[in-house]
Amino acid sequence: MEAFAVTLTVFVLAMFVGFEVITKVPPTLHTPLMSGSNAISGITIIGAILLAGLDLTALTTTLAFVAVVFATINVVGGFLVTHRMLEMFKRK
Amino acid sequence: MRAALINFAYLVAATLFVLGFKGLSSPRTAVRANMIGALGMLIAVVATLLDRGIVSYGVILAGLGAGSAIGAVLALNIRMTAMPQMVALLNGFGGGASVLVAGSALLGALALGQALPYQSSVATAASGIIGAVTFWGSLVAYAKLQELVPGRPQAFPGQQILNGGLRLVSLLLGAWLVREPHATGLYWGLVIVASVLGVTSVLPIGGADMPVVICLLNSYSGLAACATGFVLNNNGLIIAGSLVGASGIILSQIMCKAMNRSLANVLFGGLGAEVATGPLADEVYAGKVKAASPQEIAMVMETARRVVIVPGYGMAVSQAQHAVRDLARLLESRGTEVEFGIHPVAGRMPGHMNVLLAEANIPYEKVKEMSEINPSFEQTDVALVIGANDVVNPSARTDPKSPIAGMPILDVDKAKTVVVIKRSLSPGFAGIPNPLFAADHTLMLFDDGKKAVLDLTAALKEAT
Question: Hey, which CATH number is domain B281-463, 3.40.309.10, 3.40.50.1220, 3.30.300.20, 3.30.470.20?
């Protein structure tokens, strides 16, 4: 329960930070914001990596492998496509 | 010691994510901001690879390789007009990953004979439900945007009851799983029910409401990651997930406000599903609509001192953004002031039009938000509407009974002349006629968006 209290604290504070920072993003950049935050939601990748590396049972490893693939698509695809868009905003 | 170092690395990653979001506050710093975010992710991944629990790297590297290849191919080949589909698809993968990670963690803990504390089992259930809804909801959103299934709302009788029932069943299965975490069948049952829920929740929602749905799914994908973080007791996941969750919630709110609707109304209302009341199209349009040729319109534009271009989804569909830029440059070379006015829900996702105009090299300073451009329409000679309908419908201001009453619109009708490029008089997603098209000072150019803009540009060149 104590550990939960700590993680919950982190969660609530991070939400507040998120609200503060993201309300400052101008509407022009809302699409890159979405694809970029998308990439960050691929953070599940670290959970997937941990479980894929444990090598417990064939089933857990298979599930984790697919999770690594999905999350990596999310991360790599998200950051790359955001980069492509933002480059277009930069040039004049 | 190593575990502490890994946690420090997560702290660094989380800090970089926050800095990355912060840098998105201006287009000037945005490219670097995105790289900072990516660096954060790289640090998190490398730190995780150092975890002592990891005994084999083969599977991990294979997964990273395959995922990177697929992700890169998708990201480098997607057209800018198809960006909403891309984001929907990526959201889905994030949600799917959360379902699989939570499932794998559950089975793993049981295989190791570990006791599951409440925190883990509750979070596992939450990951399963949110992740599955995100995955399937996003796939349906993708199919709708890609027009694999019709974009119109697919309503069926008893739909709200069905969705309510599914929601309840998934929560009950979740509660049961918390009581009996060893019954892994419950987890997969819950995932199946939530999957059906994902499909039946998004299917009834129409194309025009997609911006809200994508934002919401974006938020869900973050919250799913958060829930998975609670499963694994991992602060890295929790912080990154909640940042994304917050971002999606804020964007959904902005979108709802721009449509003057509540989130509940978007999710359960099904705009365009009900038969629109109010004046019939024939009454509004009969004998009043003036169709004009590109030459006639060029004559009006020739003398204009200020032109405001209002793009809508139609510009994206006909890929007209480059043609629009050429027209804008031609006007500018003749001394006309040109600006762009963007409605927050133009297109299929927030900021979609801005990306398309940026792709065509139109400087972002000339692209104005609704609140910024609206006061200037009275001093505007020509408002050129390209493939937009409901967001320029004055009924929102004038007719309190209209389905879109109170929705903030771009006041193009206040310009001296309004030119509307549109394929036909067919209604927009709200399913109502637009009195703007019948107004005395409106000229209609019926054609495909791109062709019409090219014709207009050619006619204007000839006139010179």
Answer: 3.40.50.1220
